[in-house]
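Deliverable D2.4 — example input (structure tokens):
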């Protein structure tokens, strides 16, 4: 068996940690073993104890205190520190060698995936030096469909992450149970408030450019209509963004996502086990940070 890693990314509060736990619970029920890798130096509580934890190397609180940095600068510092301490990472990954399947819970500051090369360097390290097959998940909350311009912004951030990381990526629309509640009217969920129904959601899961641009134009100054058109065209031309619906509280929904992830990484397809390559620390530690 090879080694597999799922990178769980997305904006703050999009449901990353909840999904990580749900995936592990689901896998365990199937007799599979998955291990949590916490990449968030500011994380507090986890349902499952992480097998690898960046907080064992560095904590955001210490960095902010000692380096006089704010939370975002501190986070970037923590990632640079990780990439400059690859012997620690190598030891952790080698200790976890028998675990084979890692679920990596990333911080919610999307600048890490879209504006810096830190996460893409980490991805290269896993795939090239440690022979992991990797799949990224990008979570966007269902409340991003409250209006079309907001949805465009979320979609472009998903796209930008996809381009930056250059690995198989599944975009996920999380918290879909809130949509269902809106539909039945039982609860004033986020989508209830926005008046969306399950049917309305289809056009956001598989964006239809014409419908979306019409809605965006209604809400934006005519000066920006050409820009709306250009953005929608971009999303459409590259056919790069569609979303898989997820309700992390529903086992069937989590199972369907896990099947997609397994397929994307060709999980379980036999291959010779590979030993990790000798690491050339210089490749990664000395790279420019482009922050
Ligand atoms: N209704 C509903 N709530 C969810 C779902 N997934 C997560 N949540 C809730 O959303 C909130 C944020 O979830 P987290 O899993 O902590 O989100 P996160 O992306 O890890 O957050 P950060 O680590 O701060 O970036 C919590 O209150 C969760 O209980 C879901 O599928 N449905």
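Example output (designed residues):
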């Amino acid at each position: 068996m090879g080694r597999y890693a799922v990178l769980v990314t997305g904006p703050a509060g999009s449901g990353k940690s909840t999904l990580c736990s749900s995936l592990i619970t689901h896998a365990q029920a199937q007799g599979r073993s998955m291990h949590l890798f916490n990449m968030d130096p500011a994380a507090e509580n986890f349902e499952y104890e992480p097998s690898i934890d960046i907080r064992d190397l560095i904590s955001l609180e210490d960095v902010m205190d000692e380096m006089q940095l704010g939370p975002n600068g501190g986070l970037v510092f923590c990632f640079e520190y990780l990439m400059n301490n690859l012997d620690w990472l190598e030891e952790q990954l080698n200790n976890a060698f028998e675990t084979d399947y890692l679920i990596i819970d990333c911080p919610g500051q999307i600048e890490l995936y879209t504006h810096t090369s830190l996460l893409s360097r980490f991805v290269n390290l896993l795939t090239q030096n440690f022979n992991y097959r990797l799949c990224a998940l990008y979570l966007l909350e269902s409340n991003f469909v409250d209006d079309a311009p907001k949805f465009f912004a979320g979609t472009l951030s998903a796209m930008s992450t996809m381009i930056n990381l250059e690995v198989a990526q599944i975009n996920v629309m999380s918290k879909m149970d809130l949509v269902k509640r809106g539909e039945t009217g039982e609860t004033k969920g986020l989508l209830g408030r926005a008046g969306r129904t399950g049917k309305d959601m289809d056009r956001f899961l598989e964006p239809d450019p014409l419908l979306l641009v019409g809605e965006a134009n209604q809400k934006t100054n005519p000066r920006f209509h050409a820009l709306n058109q250009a953005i929608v065209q971009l999303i459409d031309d590259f056919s790069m963004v569609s979303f898989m619906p997820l309700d992390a509280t529903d086992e069937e929904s989590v199972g369907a996502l896990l099947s997609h992830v397994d397929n994307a990484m060709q999980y379980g397809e036999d291959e010779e086990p590979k030993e990790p390559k000798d690491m050339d620390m210089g490749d990664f530690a000395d790279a420019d940070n482009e922050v």
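The chain has two domains: 3-175+242-267, 207-240.
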